[in-house]
Recover the amino acids of this structure.
């Protein structure tokens, strides 16, 4: 199982990034055969989506698209920005092919200045992942700045939740059939992506 953590904060000292790393470490501790990798999207030179065929992106954009396509399960993390996920993450979701995460277990983590926007994961990020036909774990982790001290995650409650998420996504993936199309329900309408080669 390849478990990819994708963090959409703009800083290297991102609290969200730390939370994603922590959850993946718990997943690895639970099952050492799980291959984990975390990407902090802002450390990559990702292009803005320009509506080309996703297969035609190059460089870091292609690298991240390929990492997402080859992952078996993913944990997405975002700081809350203006009551939703960051533009960095939105752009990444615009870049990936429509079937990049189809039928894959997905866990969600967010960090906000306070808890006021915790429902944004339910009302903003889950519907987006619904478009991609990803299978989002029902329970998410929502931390706030008070859960961190001097750049470290200091809340045992949040650490426990990150452990629950990390172990749950491993358990979820173990239950997945080889044919993920057999459990996703109906496909949505076919939406053709515009390609640069289209006239
Ligand atoms: C542009 C901007 C918008 C923000 N909007 C919100 C918001 O709507 N709700 C919230 O709870 N926190 C908001 N915050 C605070 C961040 O979500 C919070 O500081 C978070 O911990 C940052 O996570 P990071 O360390 O991973 O970047 C905002 C911060 C910035 C810079």
């Amino acid at each position: 199982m390849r478990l990819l953590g994708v963090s959409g904060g703009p800083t290297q000292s991102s609290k969200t990034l730390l939370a994603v790393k922590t959850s993946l470490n718990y997943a690895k501790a639970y099952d050492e055969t799980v291959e984990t990798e975390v990407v902090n999207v802002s450390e990559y030179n990702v292009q803005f989506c320009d509506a080309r065929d996703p297969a035609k992106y190059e460089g870091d954009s292609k690298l991240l698209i390929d990492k997402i396509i080859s992952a078996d399960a993913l944990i997405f993390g975002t700081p809350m920005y203006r009551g939703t996920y960051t533009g960095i993450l939105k752009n990444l979701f615009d870049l990936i092919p429509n079937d990049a995460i189809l039928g894959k277990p997905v866990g969600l983590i967010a960090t906000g200045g306070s808890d006021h926007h915790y429902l944004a994961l339910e009302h903003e990020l889950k519907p987006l992942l619904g478009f991609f036909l990803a299978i989002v774990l029902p329970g998410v982790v929502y931390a706030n700045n008070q859960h961190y001290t001097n750049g470290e995650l200091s809340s045992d409650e949040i650490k426990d939740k990150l452990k629950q998420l990390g172990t749950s996504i491993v358990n979820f993936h173990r239950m997945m059939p080889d044919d993920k199309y057999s459990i996703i329900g109906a496909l949505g309408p076919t939406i053709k992506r515009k390609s640069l080669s289209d006239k």
User: Anything to note?
Assistant: The domain at 2-182 is CATH 3.40.50.360 (Rossmann fold). The CA atoms of residues 49 and 94 lie 6 Å apart. The first strand starts at residue 2 and ends at 7. The chain has a mean pLDDT of 95.
